[in-house]
């Protein structure tokens, strides 16, 4: 019996040893056509409760069937600080990169948005579904037991109205007061609760947007002397926060 290290798949319901589950869609394609697994091979299943089970493949067609074996992993311990990312939708496929890498860095949810200088165009249902699939695949790859949810894109003004729902809002702006990032985070980052990281578009935030965010309680952050691309800025800030809060 073969076991493929990367063969971890999420299923929608809670299961128990002895149950038979069906896997469809992209995951079924990956099992049968990409990984080329066969009947009798082992995979890992993560159920809706975050528990990980070993399972044995029974059929590997368009619909994959597997028998659940034993539990091999408990749900991840919830971090004291849950970080959410509000990312201005960039042009092209850069949002794909942000979704994938930020999932690996532990983001709890994604909130795409459009602001004054956004150039990413509209984000319809097809793009939203793609982002959710990417988050799911990245969570499987990196060993997370939770898939971050990708919210419907909103306008900047609507995003600002949601700031009060977080314990802290960190607003990356190249024209913020040039204070060392580590010192600024030490002052503003809570040890527990929820933090929203807000990263603007390719053209940056306008002064009016930064002022509006600050008026709603956001802390303006300077990320250093170099102007970072929007996808780079998100990952830099998430990585530093992860290092501080781990």
Short key terms for the protein model shown above:
246 residues, alpha/beta, Ribosomal Protein L25, Chain P, Alpha/beta knot, 7-stranded parallel sheet, 5-stranded mixed sheet, 28% strand, disordered N terminus
Can you put this structure into words, describing what you see?
It is a single chain. The protein has 246 residues and is α/β, with parallel strands linked by helices. Helices cover 31% and strands 28% of the residues. It has 2 domains: 71 residues, Beta Barrel (Ribosomal Protein L25, Chain P); 165 residues, Alpha/beta knot, CATH 3.40.1280.10. The strands form 2 sheets. Strands 6, 7, 8, 9, 10, 11 and 12 form a 7-stranded parallel beta sheet that branches. It is elongated. The two termini are 37 Å apart.
The secondary structure category is: alpha/beta
Q: How many domains?
A: 2
Helix content: 25-40%
Number of helical stretches of at least 4 residues: 7
**Whole-angstrom Rg:** 20 Å
The quaternary organization reads as single chain
Count all strands and give the number.
Answer: 12
Shape estimate = elongated
Helix/strand layout:
Elements: E1 3-10, E2 20-23, H1 25-34, E3 42-46, E4 52-60, E5 64-73, E6 81-88, H2 94-104, E7 109-114, H3 125-142, E8 149-150, E9 154-155, H4 156-160, E10 168-172, H5 181-188, E11 193-199, H6 207-215, E12 219-221, H7 230-245
Parallel strand pairs: 1-3, 6-7, 6-11, 7-8, 7-9, 10-11, 10-12
Antiparallel strand pairs: 2-5, 3-4, 4-5
């Amino acid at each position: 019996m073969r076991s493929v290290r990367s063969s971890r798949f999420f299923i929608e319901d809670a299961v128990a040893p002895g149950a038979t589950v069906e896997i469809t869609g992209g995951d079924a394609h990956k099992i049968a056509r990409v990984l080329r697994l066969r009947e009798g091979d082992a995979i890992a299943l993560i159920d809706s409760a975050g528990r990980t089970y070993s399972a044995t493949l029974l059929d590997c067609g368009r619909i994959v069937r597997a028998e659940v074996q034993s539990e091999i992993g408990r749900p991840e311990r919830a971090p004291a600080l849950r970080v959410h990312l509000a990312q201005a939708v960039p042009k092209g496929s850069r949002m794909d990169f942000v979704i994938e890498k930020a999932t690996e860095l532990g983001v709890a949810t994604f909130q795409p948005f459009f602001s004054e200088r956004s150039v990413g165009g509209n984000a319809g249902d097809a793009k939203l579904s793609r982002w959710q699939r990417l988050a799911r695949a990245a969570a499987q790859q990196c060993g997370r037991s939770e898939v971050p949810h990708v919210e419907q894109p909103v306008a900047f003004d609507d995003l600002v109205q949601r700031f009060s729902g977080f314990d802290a809002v960190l607003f990356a702006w190249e024209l913020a007061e040039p204070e060392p990032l580590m010192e600024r985070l030490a002052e503003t980052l809570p040890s527990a609760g929820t933090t929203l990281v807000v990263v603007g578009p390719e053209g940056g935030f306008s002064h009016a947007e930064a002022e509006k965010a600050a008026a709603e309680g956001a802390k303006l952050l300077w990320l250093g002397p170099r102007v970072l691309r929007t996808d780079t800025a998100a990952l830099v800030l998430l990585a530093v926060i992860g290092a501080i809060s781990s």
